[in-house]
Amino acid sequence: MIKIKSSEITSKAEYLSRRDFLKTAGIVTAGAALLAACGTDEVPAAPPTQSLPTDQKTAPLSEELTPEDSVLNYNNYYEFTTDKERVAGLAKDFKSSPWTVEVSGLVNNPKTYGIEDFLGSFTIEERIYRMRCVEAWSMVIPWNGFTLASLLNEVEPTSDAKFVRFETLADPDQMPGLVNKLYPWPYQEGLRLDEAMNDLTILSTGLYGETLANQNGAPIRLVVPWKYGFKSIKSIIKIELTAEQPSNFWQDIAPNEYGFYANVNPAVDHPRWSQATERRIGELKRRETLYLNGYADEVAHLYEGLDPNKLY
Ligand code: MTE
Questions:
Q1: 227 close to ligand 1 (CB < 6 Angstrom)
Q2: What's the topology of domain 12-310?
Q3: Residue with the nearest Cα to atom 22 of ligand 1?
Q4: Is residue 17's pLDDT more than 80?
Q5: Does pTM top 0.70 for this prediction?
């Protein structure tokens, strides 16, 4: 499980000297600042700043943090635009404060939280996770956040609660992408209750030690690292415990292409492209995609009854 404090991450100086060694040894084949181009997936170049610690079990030494500049400027946030490189600019004036999140449905203690309540009540940790987009690109991001389980334990799901449904704000005055009526706004997502309670599942309020930027889903978003990135819903205003399996934005648009579970699985191709490999932002060569995005030890037991060769 990846749970690392920033103090445990290799320092920039150590990182740079390791890079020098690799360069001398001829292992770094192209400049670190060069980025792979894959159609419109091209992103602004920036040198990596840190590496993962060498003793990290699920993140081998070769996996570096994605440069902050790329995390901030290559985004999917359809409420603003479908153009990844324009999200940051269009979201610049988004008002993420004051903000409340209603936690309701099948719970004993329904409550509407302000962001300050979350920051005051729950332990904010740093979690370094891979993020694998269903479009076959990926990043490694140092998130700041708290476990969804800590929130759910506080509101106490009733015995009838089996799923958790999340909803993003839909404010046409602030979100220009909402004019596109072909999409089923508001963006919504869902998890099974045991997935939501898993220790890897967090609500993020920041990344790279900074408050979450608007384009990354300020002020609070979900991060579920073993699932395709679209499950990690941004700018959440509502969390609802339900008995029925909720639908999700992408499943509503194309049920033959996107499922409820959306677990990262290299063996199950998207109907229009392969999921066997991915383009790690900042790298030239494609990487093999890992089953459950490399988190099988932590979460494979959740899916024991499901056929791993099917789209769920
Ligand atoms: N949440 C909302 N509300 N709207 C979106 O368009 N895009 C999803 C997910 N969460 C999306 C969203 C997709 S497809 C991905 S890959 C990630 O956010 C991207 O997160 P990032 O831009 O912070 O890297």
A1: no
A2: Sulfite Oxidase; Chain A, domain 2 (3.90.420)
A3: 75
A4: no
A5: yes
